[in-house]
TrEMBL record:
PROSITE patterns associated with the record: MALIC_ENZYMES
UniProt record similarity statement: Belongs to the malic enzymes family.
InterPro entries: Aminoacid_DH-like_N_sf, Malic_enzyme_CS, Malic_N_dom, Malic_N_dom_sf, Malic_NAD-bd, Malic_OxRdtase, NAD(P)-bd_dom_sf
UniProt entry tagged with the keyword Nuclease: no
Protein name in the entry: Malic enzyme
Residue ranges of every copy of the Malic enzyme NAD-binding domain listed in the record: 269-534
Cofactor requirement: Mn(2+)
Lineage of origin: Eukaryota, Fungi, Dikarya, Basidiomycota, Agaricomycotina
Keyword NAD: yes
Malic enzyme N-terminal domain residues: 78-259
Record SUPFAM superfamilies: Aminoacid dehydrogenase-like, N-terminal domain, NAD(P)-binding Rossmann-fold domains
The entry's keywords: Metal-binding, NAD, Oxidoreductase
Pfam families tied to this protein: malic (PF00390), Malic_M (PF03949)
């Protein structure tokens, strides 16, 4: 037995131990443990190592030819043995994250009621409003909860309203926190907020397991969400509350409403923006220019585009000591009505994007369509952007004319077609490279192969993947016991990610680290976040900044079996 393996005092015995995913070792229980815990006759003779178990589990996984079947297999494994589950995925990160998360998890969520076998989290349902506190306590009493991931499932992974199936995205997100940051899975809580669904297919499905009712909105919805948040604040005061896949009408306002009351985070709003900010910072490290000197054009002003705009804006303001209003002047957002400018009127300008509205006098003499709307080409000609970001799912929107026009106005255009999946990207990386004569700095929302350069070299296309940063942001807030996940803490984590850019050593390398390095990357992000929390006084721990690295590593959960000793008063 390795001297570094932990020793656990466990109160469970027999079948109770074998059916508990936190403590079950399966065939890895030692002969001594089998005798002590009453397992000798319950297991086959041979004792396996964890590596042997991983090899067997991977072979079993490979026998499933369809990704949805692999997803189901891995879900079953998570319900049986946490150490084996996380060790297997950690050994094959690049291959298996898409199986347990996007894109395969979307299919599993869409089929949730037909695939349902057992519960996998906490189901908070609107008709049970009066018993919410009792139901919540049943899940959290006696537990030290560090992370609560919740979803109302209105906007799941590009497939929209999925009702009670939202529990799938909450559990998947929790698993990513464990895999990439080291969150202890026993201290996480996955929650679906079942407020009904407007998905007619679900409402008409006799096997639908959620509340078969139209989605609750307005005051009733707000009261339900508020009661849940207050329960989180009351019973898990030091946890991080992660909002996931809420609809655009609720995502921003709920985050804004609660982020000063509790440590809250919304990956769709802040995570996408943070990884994009890191990507831009990395590119600026190559071009040797300042964030405040950039001109940003963002094509697509939905949840992702607006989240990116806000995070970039906050980065400009924080790193250059500018007001929010002054930082906003660097941004030009386009939605389905073209450039967001004053003359569009209140009906076409959503409240969420109003602060980025451009004054009409800027656009006098600029060609418009018959509706008076300014298109992307005209914006690029007028603004001469240094950064062009696509979040539109409008495939091919960045045409050759637009890219060549952009290249006229800046030596190293930063081009980020971030729409997913790859078939919906605004421009193919190879085209963007060719049309700028190899000058463009490029990152995408999905993996792409290296770009072939005229000189024979290859340019590595970075992947703007939220998983490179959000687990670290959350883990940093959690270990520092921060009262809030502040903008400055997010920017600190973003700057640390940017500092890890391979492009800073080789301009032909990727703007962001490889996804395979994401566990180490997220640890660095977490350290930066916790250091900033301590510096600004929002941390709830009495640490010195130089202690953070050691403390962070010490709080990471590792998928190790350890050595068990029986103690009737031990852990369960």
């Amino acid at each position: 037995m390795s001297q570094t393996e932990p020793v656990f005092r466990v109160a469970l015995r027999g079948s109770a131990l074998l059916t508990d995913p936190r403590w079950n070792k399966g065939t890895a229980f030692t002969n001594e443990e089998r005798k002590v815990f009453g397992l000798t006759g319950r297991l086959p003779y041979r004792v396996n190592t964890l590596d042997e178990q991983i090899a067997r589990a991977y072979a079993q996984l490979e026998s499933h030819k369809h990704d949805l079947r692999k997803n189901t297999f891995l879900q079953s494994m998570r319900e049986q043995n946490w150490v084996l589950y996380y060790s297997l995925i950690g050994s094959h990160l690049r291959e298996l994250i898409p199986i347990i998360y996007t894109p395969t998890e979307a299919e599993a969520i869409a089929n949730y009621s037909h695939l349902f076998r057992r519960s996998e989290g906490l189901y908070m349902t609107f008709p049970d409003f009066d018993s919410m506190e009792e139901d919540f306590l049943e899940q959290v009493k006696g537990r030290d909860i560090d992370l609560v991931v919740c979803s109302d499932a209105e906007a799941i992974l590009g497939i929209g309203d999925q009702g009670v199936g939202g529990i799938g995205i909450a559990t998947a997100k929790s698993a990513i926190y464990t895999l990439l940051a080291g969150m202890d899975p026993s201290k996480t809580l996955s929650v679906t907020l079942d407020v009904g669904t407007d998905n007619e297919d679900l409402l008409n499905d006799p096997l639908y397991v959620g509340w078969p009712h139209k989605r609750i909105r307005g005051e009733e919805y707000d009261q339900f969400i508020d009661k849940f948040v207050q329960l989180v604040r009351k019973y898990t005061p030091h946890s991080l509350l992660h909002f996931e896949d809420f609809g655009v009408t609720n995502a921003y306002r709920l985050l804004d409403k609660y982020r000063d009351q509790h440590a809250c985070f919304n990956d769709d709003v802040q995570g996408t923006g943070a990884v994009t900010l890191a990507c831009v910072m990395s590119a600026l490290g190559v071009t040797k220019s300042k964030l405040a000197d950039q001109r940003f054009v963002i094509y697509g002003a939905g949840s992702a585009g607006l989240g990116i705009a806000r995070q970039l804006r906050d980065g400009v303001a924080t790193t250059n000591n500018l007001s929010i209003e002054e930082a906003n002047k660097r941004f030009y957002l386009l939605d389905k009505f073209g450039l967001i400018k004053e003359s569009l009127g209140a009906e076409k300008i959503r409240d969420a994007v109003r602060e980025f509205t451009r004054p009409d006098q800027e656009w006098e003499g600029v060609p418009t369509n018959e509706k008076g709307e300014v298109g992307l080409l005209e914006v690029v000609k007028k603004v001469k952007p240094t950064v062009l970001i696509g979040c539109s799912t409008h495939a091919g929107a960045f045409t050759e004319e637009i890219i060549r026009e952009m290249a006229k106005g800046t030596d190293r255009p930063i081009i980020l077609p971030l729409s997913n999946p790859s078939r919906l990207h605004e421009v193919k990386p190879q085209d963007a490279n060719d049309w700028t004569n190899g000058k463009a700095l490029i990152a995408t929302g999905s993996p792409f192969p290296p770009i072939k350069q005229p000189n024979g070299k290859e340019y590595i296309v970075g992947e703007c993947n939220n998983a490179l940063i959000y687990p670290g942001l959350g883990f940093g807030a959690m270990i520092s016991r921060s009262r809030a996940l502040t903008d400055s803490m997010i920017v600190a984590g973003t700057q640390r990610l940017a500092e890890l850019s391979p492009a800073l050593k080789d301009p032909d390398d990727a703007l962001l680290p490889d996804f395979g390095d994401s566990p180490a990357v997220n640890l660095e992000v977490a350290i930066a976040v916790a250091e900033q929390a301590i510096e600004e006084g929002s941390a709830g721990v009495d640490w010195k900044k130089e202690e953070v690295r050691g403390k962070a590593k010490g709080k990471q959960w590792k998928p190790l079996y350890g050595q068990y000793e029986y103690d009737p008063n031990g852990e369960q």
